[in-house]
């Protein structure tokens, strides 16, 4: 069986989730009741039997490191391989690299020393449940230099305007990578290639003064290399704005979408926290909600997502909202179309109302 190593490249991901990324990078943003966005990428790699994974982190990575620890939740706390969190360390005075190529250059030992034959490079803003072994088999069958992953979307949304699209011929070969506003083949910020070819690409890009591995090493070289497109057909969420975060979070209240993302055979793992079961009082009323453990609910919760340890007081109403870990909502408060970051406190009888297209967002540890 071919060995695969994984690189989770956060270097070029922008912290565009407003209040949710004031204190953390987007990869560490909580999602789906108990997870972080990076959990999906690491779980996909772990489920694909990728046992050596590097995380390239540049900004606001304290929360990320606290969450990932030694990788135990993903069975990556091992003697050989495992999880490597690699923040910036630019101590080489002769280093001429820039952009995300700095991370590849300064951590080139991860690439050269791994026993893997292939390397998967991925971001974290495309939420999905993908088997990279399937991508590898199609990559080998196509004879391509690089295989990129894409999703053919049925309906274009604002978040798709900010990402690359692929033009693909009948054989599955990528003929163009662009920002066509009408294009529906959305590049998912994932690609696979041979380890040796990745090393050559990094060295060549740096030698030519480039700053972005994908844009300069793949997109710009498209006429000279064979790039194959692998179509991912499962549930997919591109999260690069508050609006997309809110909308895709609410999609998980749909049973079909939830089951397709959280498959029994390829589970999504996260840091374990031992919490008691949620307590529902006689005064509580909960309909169509995703509720994590450790909550205490005395009020009304509808069409909402509650993370671990949330308290909803008697007479309080939480509707179409996302309430993150350890938030407290006092009696008779009303929240509709609201996102509360961790450890917020909403006082008695307070009313917060946003709009579905622009939810009201409260930053971490705020009391109102």
Automatic annotation (TrEMBL):
Record-level GO BP terms: glycogen biosynthetic process
Annotated ranges, domain Glucose-1-phosphate adenylyltransferase/Bifunctional protein GlmU-like C-terminal hexapeptide: 282-350
Keywords, sorted A to Z: Glycogen biosynthesis, Nucleotidyltransferase, Transferase
Highest rank taxon of the organism: Bacteria
Domain spans labelled Nucleotidyl transferase: 19-155
GO-annotated molecular function: glucose-1-phosphate adenylyltransferase activity
Keyword Endoplasmic reticulum appears in the UniProt entry: no
Claim: Zinc is one of the keywords in the record: no
A Pfam family annotated for this UniProt entry: NTP_transferase
PANTHER family: GLUCOSE-1-PHOSPHATE ADENYLYLTRANSFERASE-RELATED, GLYCOGEN BIOSYNTHESIS PROTEIN GLGD
Family assignment from sequence similarity: Belongs to the bacterial/plant glucose-1-phosphate adenylyltransferase family.
Protein name, entry field: Glucose-1-phosphate adenylyltransferase
Organism: Salimicrobium flavidum
């Amino acid at each position: 069986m071919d060995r695969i190593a994984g690189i989770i490249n956060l270097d070029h991901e922008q912290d565009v989730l407003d209040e949710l990324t004031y204190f953390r990078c987007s990869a560490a943003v909580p999602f789906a009741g108990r997870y972080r966005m990076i959990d999906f990428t690491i779980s996909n790699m772990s489920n694909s039997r990728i046992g050596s994974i590097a995380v390239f982190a540049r900004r606001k990575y304290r929360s990320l490191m606290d969450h990932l620890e030694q990788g135990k939740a993903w069975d990556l706390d091992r003697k050989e391989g495992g999880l490597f969190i690699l923040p910036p360390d630019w101590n080489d005075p002769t280093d001429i690299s820039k952009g995300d190529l700095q991370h590849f250059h300064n951590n080139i030992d991860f690439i050269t020393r791994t026993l893997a034959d292939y390397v998967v490079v991925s971001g974290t803003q495309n939420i999905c449940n993908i088997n990279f072994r399937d991508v590898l088999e199609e990559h080998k069958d196509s004879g391509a230099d690089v295989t990129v992953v894409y999703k053919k979307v049925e309906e274009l949304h604002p978040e798709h305007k900010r990402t690359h699209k692929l033009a693909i011929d009948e054989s599955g070969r990528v003929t163009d990578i662009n920002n066509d506003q009408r294009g529906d083949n959305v590049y998912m910020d994932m690609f696979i290639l041979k380890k040796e070819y990745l090393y050559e690409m990094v060295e060549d890009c740096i030698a030519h003064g480039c700053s972005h591995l994908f844009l300069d090493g793949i997109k710009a070289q498209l006429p000279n290399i064979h790039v194959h497109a692998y179509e991912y057909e499962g549930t997919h969420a591109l999260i690069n704005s508050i609006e997309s975060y809110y909308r895709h979070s609410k999609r998980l209240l749909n049973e079909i979408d939830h089951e397709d993302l959280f498959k029994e055979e390829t589970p999504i793992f996260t840091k374990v926290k031992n919490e008691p079961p949620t307590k529902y009082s006689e005064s509580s009323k909960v309909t169509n909600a995703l509720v994590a453990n450790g909550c205490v609910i005395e009020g009304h919760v509808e069409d909402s997502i509650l993370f671990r340890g949330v308290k909803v007081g008697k007479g309080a109403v939480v509707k179409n909202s996302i309430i993150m870990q350890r938030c407290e909502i006092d009696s008779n408060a009303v929240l509709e179309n609201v996102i509360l970051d961790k450890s917020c406190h909403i006082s008695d009888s307070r009313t917060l109302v946003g709009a579905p297209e622009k939810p009201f967002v409260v930053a971490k540890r705020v009391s109102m």
